[in-house]
Amino acid sequence: MVEVHIPDGLIDPLVAGAGWLLAILILAVATRVVNRKVEDRHIPLMAMLAAGIFVAQMLNFPIGGGTTGHLVGAALAAILLGPFAGAVIIMVILVIQCLVFGDGGVTTLGLNFLNMGFIGCFTGYYIYGAFPERYAKAGMFVAAWLAVFLGSLACAAELALSNQMSNGTFGISTVIAFPSMTIYHAIIGIGEGIITTGIIAFLARVSPEMLRMPKITSGSPSGPIVEVATDA
């Protein structure tokens, strides 16, 4: 079964350790930015997104070949709140899933965060932001799809590297890791794009003020990057 969450015992310890180191550095920056830029009006949305994405990630659906997929939600969180707040939200979800439900390993938590939280949130935010306002919906879809696909590509690289470094003791061979991860997650990404676009379009109708909040970024407060969705 191909999973987004990497379990314990599958990754070479050196690769897992490097993942933890990078994750700690990124989270240190992200939490500092969030603590400095967060406003009271951000808190309810952060809590709502964390709860909703947590539930969505626990609902797996079959996509063929014994493989299951689920909504990652990283692009959704990043588009609505900014990449730093999105990354913090995804890490909180991953910690709960790992420690309480055994979904994903403790040793691989850093890599799982890099694949879903870091790559997912920053890809989702900046790819969407690169689209003109008239193509906002297309931007949402592409951003969400790429967030999933690039995360799966990174996961495949980690599995293949572990396999090579350990002479086959850990990981999965390159010829299996890349096709199995990227092909299935290219399909999962389509669902991710549809769901992400649909959720934001729904929020634009029922709670447009939620989309007008400034995004939490490392620079000066950004404008309402999602406000264009209210015109859809």
Word description of this protein:
The radius of gyration is 17 Å and the shape is globular. The chain has helices at 13-37, 42-58, 74-81, 83-101, 109-129, 136-165, 174-206, 208-211; strands at 61-64, 67-69. It has a single domain (13-231), classed as Arp2/3 complex 21 kDa subunit ARPC3 (Orthogonal Bundle). It has 232 residues and is mainly alpha-helical.
List the helices and strands and how they pair.
Elements: H1 13-37, H2 42-58, E1 61-64, E2 67-69, H3 74-81, H4 83-101, H5 109-129, H6 136-165, H7 174-206, H8 208-211
Concise summary:
The chain has 232 residues and is mainly α. It has helices spanning 13-37, 42-58, 74-81, 83-101, 109-129, 136-165, 174-206, 208-211; strands at 61-64, 67-69.
Our estimate of the beta-strand percent is under 5%
Cα(first) to Cα(last) distance is 39 Å
Number of domains: 1
What's the total count of β strands? 2
Q: What is the helix tally?
A: 8
Shape from CA axes?
globular
Helix share bin: 55-70%
Structural class: mainly alpha
Q: Are there runs of 5+ residues with pLDDT below 50, and where?
A: 228-232
CATH class: Mainly Alpha
Find the CATH topology: Arp2/3 complex 21 kDa subunit ARPC3
Q: Radius of gyration over alpha carbons?
A: 17 Å
With strands numbered from the N-terminus, the spatial order across the biggest sheet is 1-2
Averaged pLDDT, please?
A: 87
The H-and-E topology, N to C, reads as HHEEHHHHHH
Largest sheet: 2 strands, antiparallel
CATH architecture verdict: Orthogonal Bundle
